[in-house]
Amino acid sequence: MAVRSRWRPARGWWLHWIWLVVAGTAQAHKPSDSYLQFDVAGQTIEGRWDIAIRDLEWQLGLDQDADRRVTWGEIQDREPAIAGYALAHLQARMDGQVCDLSAGSLQIETHTDGAYVSLPLSGRCPRFGTQVQLQYDLMFDRDAQHRGLLRIAHRGQVETAVFTPTRRRQVFDLRETRATRVAWQYFHEGLWHVWIGLDHLLFLAGLLLPTVLRRQPGGFQVAESPGETLRDVLFVVTSFTMAHFVALSLATLGWLTLPSRWVESAVALTIVFAAMNNLVPVVTRRLWLVAFGFGLIHGAGYASVLSDLGLPPITLALALLAFNAGVEGAQIAVAAVTLPVAFWLRRYRWMQWCVLVPGALLVAWLGVLWFLERALNQTVLT
Fold first, then answer.
1. Which UniProt keywords are given for this protein, alphabetically ordered (predicted)?
2. What does the alpha-carbon distance between residue 218 and residue 307 come to, in Å, rounded to a whole number?
3. Per-residue pLDDT reduced to its tens digit, 107-165
4. pTM for the whole structure
5. Minimum mean pLDDT range among 7-16, 46-55, 311-320
6. Which residues touch 163 (CB under 8 Å, ≥6 apart)?
């Protein structure tokens, strides 16, 4: 009876965990982004809007001959539809008065994660004001992870903002630039980067589990001291975040440029390694060094967002610091919630053989599928 009472909650927890992992597989890719730049001078607004071709294909069906390639000719044929779709999901106001926005001739721009349609924008507001309001609704109806990355310049100053499904409206005071806006926006994005990144969370879990339960020949070795476990966890989390910061800084400053496709493929391989290391230990000591090395790869995976914004040095430094503070805070929160439970359950055999072993195999399998998707640029998981 004792064995049965232990297996039932383990089985229920295990099935629930499988559902969470499988249901979240679609969230393990680089989130969809668009890049919006505006220069405000008096009543005039000039700018540019870069929207990923893959997103426009998803929304408008640009691939007319269904050969799985979008050509320049197909884009030109749909130019009115592209401009109309974009302008229908963006509105600018100055002191509450709607500004008339129009689009110029389409161009193609390349960002680190692929080709984008670049839409020149121009507009004139009814009168000069002191406040600009922007309303952004692109892609949110189909992709809750989509982000609109905004850079707005006025009077020689630059501000940034991130449009999300819960922050579709941004307001800017043309008389001042608030550093707190930049700090809060990117701190929030650092938190969000961890919460939506299933690959990020699974990799972190793979590195943290050996701090409480380590595979050994013939069985498992459990951690004895909560203090030692806490120290190991802090080393791993902090090393991972420091590496994140280093990679982000190098890439954003232009000193490290890597194709997003291959970086994301490498991220998938780190997940496979972290999972299999729990079954066939290769690294058993100084896991913080592994966390630092792989953290460089994970950091490079997000660096394209900040580098493509073209932020000025002061704003860039603030955005980097705030983003990494958000990442560190989210990782500590995840560890604070999950590790006490894992530490408490570490001695149960069902935890070792019915959760850790199948869980590591499932995560490794997902990592292999993600690698194939990203390296081959083909859909494996739906």
1. Membrane, Transmembrane, Transmembrane helix
2. 49
3. 999 887 788 999 999 999 998 888 899 999 999 988 888 999 998 988 767 788 889 99
4. 0.62
5. 7-16
6. 36, 134, 136, 138, 147, 148, 149, 150, 170
